[in-house]
């Protein structure tokens, strides 16, 4: 009966390398001496050398240490242990096999099938590349005209991009890395996964807020966001459409623009207040709080702190103006638009420089310049206790103005004598 | 009541029900009097009606034959996912090869018929003979003196549409062919 156990064991021993065991071995080699003659050699050598070498510092792995003493030693080196003590203990006692090599037969067979499929897909990708090259070299007359050739090439390119995704979509390591947030956004598969995840929930929320608060169609007739835009003021992440304290929004917002298609591109950023009260017209108008153009954005370079764009810079047209809502005016919708330049061409600065803050029209901007709205974000501001100070600091006048509703005109009915109402006696 | 009929016999007791499912249990009547534990609304007979669907969901959730939910650790779930994807991929590949094989067979048949029709040069006589469908569902096999194409197979009368229930007339014992 012991035989099968004996047979299975060596394989398990190859896969598992318990740390405690190896540590014990190394310690026994370094500290104790098994043979007396070795000891004598050691002693003679120590007598000849003037000072014994200091003991090497204990190896401290922040992933593995568990005792308080080890934690203190690690802290002395300026590092902190990773995770909980329970987690570190668990890692210490479990075998450290990489995920792909876990010895489960079905899993390994599955991996083989997936790997074979991937190889096949890679061959197909190469073939498709060759085909595209061939079509590109063929004169347009033989393919039924320039338009036909272009359409054919677009379709083939799309198929190639799809193939690139299909080659990797079944890889468990890709899935794991993406879930850990370690995905490389330069690779199409991670961009695809990120896009899918965004569209599942966050984009829907974003669209809901835009339509609920009538950014569409108040400012734009329509928008189909293809890039994720998130807002943060310093540490404060802003949920789509949230009210932001005026003291927090006094500093420029930090945008995170995540695009899901490859390559660099140029964008413009517009921050627009859609609810500026205008007493003259008894209505509302718009005000541009920020405008910067020709900003490069790639799938990996996503952070876009607007504080970077100072007045007088080549990209900044209108610097950040703190959002403010005067007392009595309804809440102001501050929307952030990310506009992608068509064909990646920079905008002509002279044409943009003449734009003013008040009455900025998004529709006019879109029609006059070659830009497409790709992303939108939204927050709201309302009069609060800090607004007056923020306005004073920014040099904005009008903090003392309070908007009041007009009293509705009385209806032209004659008021009846009060004596007729129950419990009311005219004195 | 229907819910009483549907109540499984081996229902776990209340104490074993997890707190997350407690809300599914019938609400305990709030004690309003010192003498009776039955609230006046219940005593009057107009007890709060619980949606029957909720009752049924409750019973089936706690039925001992309901399998426990799949709970996997992260890596286990990932392995499960990998195996699932591979199985789906394998099935897809199999389906694809079957379809291709069927398509190949169909094309070969069509090519052969086309060859008979045009290529042989007998004015399509062979082709017409090949297209005869007489007796293909029955009759004696051609080798046993049957008509051309007879294969001794299942009579066409048996190829009735499959039905859920038996026919109204029952089994016809006295039936003979032709």
UniProtKB/TrEMBL annotation, chain A:
Main location: mitochondrion
Disordered as annotated region, ranges: 26-63
Residues annotated as signal peptide: none
Comp. bias (Pro residues): 50-60
Key words, A-Z: Mitochondrion
InterPro entries: PEBP (IPR008914), PEBP-like_sf (IPR036610), PEBP_euk (IPR035810)
Any single GO CC term annotated in Swiss-Prot or TrEMBL for this entry: mitochondrion
Subcellular location: Mitochondrion
Transmembrane residue ranges: none
Protein family membership: Belongs to the phosphatidylethanolamine-binding protein family. Mitochondrion-specific ribosomal protein mL38 subfamily.
Free-text function comment from the UniProt entry: Component of the mitochondrial ribosome (mitoribosome), a dedicated translation machinery responsible for the synthesis of mitochondrial genome-encoded proteins, including at least some of the essential transmembrane subunits of the mitochondrial respiratory chain. The mitoribosomes are attached to the mitochondrial inner membrane and translation products are cotranslationally integrated into the membrane.
Protein name (Swiss-Prot/TrEMBL): Large ribosomal subunit protein mL38
Species whose genome carries this gene: Heterodermia speciosa
From TrEMBL, chain B:
Molecular functions per Gene Ontology: structural constituent of ribosome
GO terms for cellular component: mitochondrion
Gene Ontology biological-process entries: mitochondrial translation
InterPro entries for the chain: Ribosomal_mL40_fung
Region annotated Disordered, chain positions: 1-20, 158-178
Biased composition (Basic and acidic residues): 166-178
PANTHER family xrefs: 54S RIBOSOMAL PROTEIN L28, MITOCHONDRIAL (PTHR39150), LARGE RIBOSOMAL SUBUNIT PROTEIN ML40 (PTHR39150:SF1)
Residue spans of biased composition, Polar residues class: 11-20
Name of the molecule in the record: Uncharacterized protein
Domain of life: Eukaryota
């Amino acid at each position: 009966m012991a035989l099968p156990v004996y047979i299975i064991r060596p394989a398990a021993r190859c896969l598992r390398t318990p740390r405690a065991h190896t540590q014990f071995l190394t310690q026994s080699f370094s500290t104790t001496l098994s043979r007396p003659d070795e000891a004598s050699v050691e002693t003679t050598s120590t007598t000849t050398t003037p000072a014994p070498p200091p003991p090497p510092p204990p190896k401290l792995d922040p992933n593995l240490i568990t005792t308080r003493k080890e934690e203190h030693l690690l802290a002395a080196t300026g590092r902190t242990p990773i995770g909980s003590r329970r987690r570190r203990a668990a890692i210490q006692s479990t075998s450290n096999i990489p995920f792909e090599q876990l010895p489960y037969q079905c899993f390994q067979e599955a991996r083989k099938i997936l790997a074979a499929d991937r190889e096949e897909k890679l061959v197909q990708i190469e073939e498709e590349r060759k085909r595209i090259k061939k079509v590109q070299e063929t004169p347009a007359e033989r393919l039924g005209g320039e338009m036909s050739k272009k359409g054919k090439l677009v379709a083939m390119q799309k198929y190639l991009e799809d193939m690139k995704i299909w080659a990797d979509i079944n890889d468990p390591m890709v899935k794991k890395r993406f879930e850990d947030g370690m995905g490389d956004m330069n690779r199409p598969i991670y961009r695809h996964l990120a896009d899918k995840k965004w569209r599942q929930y966050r984009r829907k929320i974003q669209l809901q807020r835009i339509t609920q608060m009538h950014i569409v169609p108040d400012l734009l007739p329509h928008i189909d966001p293809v890039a994720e835009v998130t807002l943060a003021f310093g540490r404060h992440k802003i949920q789509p459409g949230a009210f932001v304290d005026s003291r927090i929004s006094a500093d420029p917002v930090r945008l995170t623009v995540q695009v899901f298609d490859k390559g660099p591109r140029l964008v413009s950023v517009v921050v627009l207040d859609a609810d500026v009260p205008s007493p003259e017209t008894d209505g509302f108008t718009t005000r541009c709080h920020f405008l910067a153009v020709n900003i490069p954005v790639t799938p990996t370079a996503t952070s876009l702190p607007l504080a970077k764009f100072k007045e007088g810079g080549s990209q900044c047209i209108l610097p950040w103006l703190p959002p403010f809502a005067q007392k009595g005016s309804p809440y102001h919708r501050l929307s952030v638009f990310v506009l992608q330049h068509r064909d990646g061409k920079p905008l002509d600065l002279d044409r943009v420089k003449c734009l003013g803050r008040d009455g900025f029209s998004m529709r006019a901007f879109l029609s006059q310049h070659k830009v497409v709205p790709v992303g939108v974000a939204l927050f709201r501001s309302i009069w609060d206790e800090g607004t007056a100070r923020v306005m004073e600091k920014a040099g904005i006048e009008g903090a003392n103005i309070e908007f009041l509703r007009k009293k509705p005109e009385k209806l032209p009915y004659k008021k009846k004598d009060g004596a007729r109402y129950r419990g009311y006696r005219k004195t | 009541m229907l819910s009483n009929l549907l109540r499984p016999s081996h229902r776990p007791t209340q104490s074993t029900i997890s707190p997350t499912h407690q809300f599914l249990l019938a609400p305990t009547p709030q004690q309003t009097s010192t003498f009776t534990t039955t609230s006046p609304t219940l005593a009057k007979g107009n007890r709060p009606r619980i949606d029957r669907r909720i009752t049924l969901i409750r019973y089936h959730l706690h039925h001992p034959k309901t399998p426990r939910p799949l709970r996997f650790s992260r890596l286990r779930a990932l392995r499960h996912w990998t195996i699932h994807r591979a199985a789906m991929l394998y099935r897809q590949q199999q389906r694809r090869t079957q379809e291709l094989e069927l398509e190949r067979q169909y094309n070969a048949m069509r090519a052969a018929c086309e060859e008979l029709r045009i290529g042989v040069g007998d004015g399509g006589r062979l082709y017409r003979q090949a297209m005869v469908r007489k007796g293909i569902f029955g009759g004696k096999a051609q080798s046993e003196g049957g008509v051309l194409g007879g294969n001794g197979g299942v009579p066409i009368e048996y190829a009735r549409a499959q039905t859920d229930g038996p026919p109204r007339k029952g089994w016809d014992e006295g039936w003979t062919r032709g």
